[in-house]
Amino acid sequence: MKLKYIVLLILFYPLTLLGQASKTTLHGEWAFALDPVNIGEYNAWHTPTFPVQGWDKVTVPHCFSVDPRYQLYTGSAWYVRKFNQAPVPQGHRAFLRFEAVFYKSAVWVNGKKLGEHEGGYTPFEVDITDALSAENTLALRVNNSWDTTTIPGAKTRVNYEKENNAQVFPWINYGGINREVYLIIRPATYIQHVKIVADPDLLKKTASVQVRVDIVNADPAKKIVPVLTLYRNKIKVPFKGKLRPDGGTPNSLWIDGTLAAKDVALWYTDEPTLYEAEVIAGTDTVRTRFGIRKVEVKGTRLLLNGEPIRMGGCNRPLDYPHFGSMDPQDVLEKDLTLIKSGGMELSRISHYPVSTHLLDWADEHGLLIIAEAGNWQLTPKQMADPVMRKKFQSQFSEMIERDWNHPSVFAWSVGNEYPSQTDEGKSWTKDMYAYAKSLDPSRLVTFASMFVARDIIKKPEDEASQYVDFISSNMYGNYLNNLKHIHEVYPDKAVYVSEFGIRTDGVKTEQGRVDHLAKAMQDFRQCDFLIGASVWTFNDYQSRFPGTNPNGYRPWGLVSPERELRGMYYAFQEEFSPATLAFQNEGSKLNITVTARKDFPSYTLRHYSIACGSQTFDIAQLKPGESKSFTYEGPAVKEISLVKPGGFTVLKKSIQH
């Protein structure tokens, strides 16, 4: 293909109208029935004439595991929805898109089986064009059972695990259509993926922007030339892109160009600047947001835009009373506001792919996320099984292709707590690292190890952390010795504590947990190779795993299941604050000093403020170890607060008069 420059156009479309494509919501009311003995398909529950008038009515997104009528049910269930549809325009195709269905699903439209999917947290689409009519019956069978072939699932037999433990995984298999459903009408030639790599030149202040456009071309004889326009704050950004082919892939093209320094605003956790890319190919249009930032590991340091960062974080099991894993927007925003306000800004936030709503919020408000697919403690036999590898790669690629434009996602994780000291664990890590880089070489790759800190690991070759960009280690106590051991084995690698903490019932009082945290932070602050630490967990979560309390919860949380703040939340908020506040009363004056931490956490503060009574003192920038002082004169105040950009209060200090 001859390389050429493309002319950039500004075109605007309504939110649900992208070029000649349209998107219709199909969540809402559905008919629902359990199928505990799997008779539904045999008895044609999926056909338009099957009577579903007597079925229960549910509202999708729906999690049948927390619906009082089907509490904690495991097995097959059916969802049916009737809908009318105008004829699909000539030269267009119709697709069903499910944002997530847990765990296995099969789709019928008007009695025709059109597709199946395995994986509970990632989206999938089914082409239903040829099955559509004016009046339609959409049927979905879903099964949330698990065994040794599902991810997540049970373990094959191993000598290091009790059999009652090995048969379950430690969170609830929340079944159902847990996220949104859409009917999408696209041109027959359409944009399948848009991938953006925006890499700043930190010296020149410019940024290279590379956009890969994957096109499904219904007419291979017709060449489709994509057109790209970039926006910031809805204003067009000057950009000239050069087209180039993508190796041997005929339907993938790259658009490369450079943004001038005046048009570059870097994405930071305190300044989360976002851009929008609009790509037009034929009559199809796709819009996606992105940020310009450089995340890299140099030796034992993690750098964001060339600056070392060391941050606190959390793990947030997707669990809320009466909602299970549905994650409604008001709950999500409440949790993420608490997380941001608690200084938990660099997180391996879940054992499985999170919702796009969570990542959108993280993009907009400045969180850094390690995104992980569902390898939870797979055994050596499972990791060596080609079928299991293929299943994992399917779920992993669905996550990466959905999330690769989110600036909040800075790393991929290939699993949690698998036996990484075995040959199978090493092979898995090496191979999945390569697979992740083949899909997205622009991000870091890690995994959460429960072996790297153990005394059995004497040299790098003993354990799979040798293959990843930075080490992630789960540890529960003996923090300083564990971290020193890791550093002795891997002196040139950055270390991230992907899990640490203590249960509420592991101590006599909440103060015991606060004391545990204080000792952990004392240890963390002695390790300059530590880039972050993620508490297990932000919230309590339901489980069947042995050791769960009689009320059904594992009580690790900084907050209760209903999000009541425990003493540990306030302790974390103070310990994870990137700065300290000191004050001194001098008559009618209050002298306030803010000092950016230089041990842990540690990063440059931008645009913070101090709130004191009716007055606000702005802190333009404060590098680690630097201090600034302010004087308050006015009516007596009871407290002063350190406030992040966006209005997140991260630290409060009471004032005694």
From TrEMBL:
Annotated Glycoside hydrolase family 2 catalytic domain ranges read 295-487
Keywords from the named record: Glycosidase, Hydrolase
| SUPFAM superfamilies reported for this sequence | (Trans)glycosidases, beta-Galactosidase/glucuronidase domain, Galactose-binding domain-like
Q: Which InterPro entries match?
A: Beta-gal/glucu_dom_sf, Galactose-bd-like_sf, GH, GH2_Domain-Containing, Glyco_hydro_2, Glyco_hydro_2_cat, Glyco_hydro_2_N, Ig-like_fold
UniProt domain Glycosyl hydrolases family 2 sugar binding: residue ranges: 25-187
A single GO molecular-function term is:
hydrolase activity, hydrolyzing O-glycosyl compounds
Residue stretches making up the Glycoside hydrolase family 2 immunoglobulin-like beta-sandwich domain: 189-293
Q: Which GO terms describe its biological process?
A: carbohydrate metabolic process
The record, for Pfam families, names: Glyco_hydro_2, Glyco_hydro_2_C, Glyco_hydro_2_N
The entry sums up its family as follows: Belongs to the glycosyl hydrolase 2 family.
Give the protein name, as stated in the record. Beta-glucuronidase
